[in-house]
């Protein structure tokens, strides 16, 4: 299966069999559900995953190892969830990310090491959050590559 979509349902958690059985999926769509959390290693077996749609859920935090072996991941969308903060290393294994969307959450703080620097990153959307200050290092690390803020 190349594309899996469970958009617009009442799912409150992603069963572990999803990433264990859908290892060849390139795109997964769990948008518009009631998902509140992702488990450690949630997508670690989805090694071909390129696009993940999680907008319009209730996710508050990403575990540091949620995307363990997802080196092919290029696009993630977590707009309109319940994020308040980021852990420093949640993207450490996602070296090919180009587009990251976290707009319309409740994010208040962006840690310096959030993207130490992601070479392929082109879009990082933090619009309509509650951010009071962006660390200077964040922009310095990413602006040279034309990242859109």
TrEMBL record:
GO terms for cellular component: plasma membrane. SUPFAM superfamilies: L domain-like. Pfam families: LRR_5 (PF13306). Keywords: Leucine-rich repeat, Repeat, Signal. The keyword Repeat applies. InterPro entries: Leu-rich_rpt, LRR_5, LRR_dom_sf, LRR_TM_domain-containing. It comes from the Eukaryota. Coiled coil: none annotated. This is Uncharacterized protein.
């Amino acid at each position: 299966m190349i594309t899996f979509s469970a958009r617009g349902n009442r799912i409150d958690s992603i069963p572990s069999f999803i990433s264990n059985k859908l290892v060849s999926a390139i795109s997964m769509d769990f948008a518009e559900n009631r998902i509140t959390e992702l488990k450690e290693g949630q997508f670690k077996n989805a090694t071909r995953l390129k696009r993940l749609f999680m907008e319009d859920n209730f996710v508050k935090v990403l575990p540091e190892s949620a995307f363990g072996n997802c080196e092919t991941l290029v696009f993630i969308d977590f707009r309109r969830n319940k994020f308040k903060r980021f852990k420093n290393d949640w993207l450490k294994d996602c070296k090919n990310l180009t587009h990251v969307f976290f707009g319309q959450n409740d994010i208040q703080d962006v840690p310096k090491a959030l993207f130490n620097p992601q070479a392929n990153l082109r879009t990082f959307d933090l619009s309509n959050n509650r951010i009071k200050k962006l660390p200077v290092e964040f922009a310095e690390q990413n602006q040279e590559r034309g990242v859109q803020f």
